[in-house]
Amino acid sequence: MPDNNCSEMEPEIAESVLELTPESLQQAIEMRQRLHRRKLKQTQEGIALANSLESDLGVPLHRLHEHFGPYPLFKLGSDSNTPLHKKLYQLHHHLKNLYQALCSRVINDLVGEPCYVQAIPCYRFGLPNNRWVGGFHHDSDFGHSGWELNAICAFTSAHNTAALQVEKEIGNSDFEPLQLKAGDVVMFDHIERLHGCVPNREDHSVASIDFRFVPERFADDAFKYAKNSINTKTPMLPGGYFSKEPIIVNS
Ligand SMILES: [Fe+2]
């Protein structure tokens, strides 16, 4: 899902990476498949984040459409640059500690090993009759690394046409909605599985964040080929797009 924090890199990188580092990449692929759809239900960390964001905005997140927009139908490459997106990213500095707590929870309870985490998550919202990502894609289409893991934290419920549509079987285009309740956190395979949104035909808005992890054991290979994000030119490296240090697992 490209946006102002997500990157787009040269597509030929993936092939050279495969040739040079098949072992760690294969381990990452297996890990991503194992974790796909693993969920933490209605986390206190996710609910705290949603409540804090709602308080800062002064608007119920499921009623965003009554206060913002309407916006032109989101398209790939321009699905994260509305005034509301800008406002959400401006508010993130209030939410840093809560976001860190959420990342720690995911690493402790789902991933199970130290990881670098996306420094600023991707903020998403879907208003009725619009969609929250601009088209169906693999994140690897935009250069995201095969060593990444990805998690989504729902700030509102997201069902049916308001949910992210994700391939059930890789390559089959057999999409199913990733049904979530507010506070749910789910790991999802953003690299191998085609995913996207259909127009939200529900009668409420949805909001979420997605955020990426690179397990520390893959760091040498993952960051060797890192590029800058297209939009912000942020290096896809520790201290840039990713946290300066890995978040460790609590004993
Ligand atoms: Fe995506």
Structure, briefly:
The protein has helices at residues 12-20, 22-35, 44-57, 83-111, 219-224, and strands at 39-40, 115-117, 122-126, 149-154, 165-167, 175-177, 185-187, 195-196, 206-215.
Task: Describe the 3D structure.
With 251 residues, the chain is of the alpha+beta class. The protein has one domain (12-224): Jelly Rolls (Sandwich), CATH 2.60.120. 29% of the residues lie in helices and 15% in strands. The chain has 5 helices and 9 strands. The strands form 2 sheets. Strands 1, 2, 3, 4, 7 and 9 form a 6-stranded antiparallel β-sheet that branches. It has a 3-stranded antiparallel β-sheet with strand order 6-5-8, with no helix packed on it. A hairpin with a 7-residue loop joins strand 5 (165-167) and strand 6. Helix 3 packs antiparallel against helix 4 (83-111). The protein is globular. The two termini are 33 Å apart. The model is unreliable at 2-13 (pLDDT under 50).
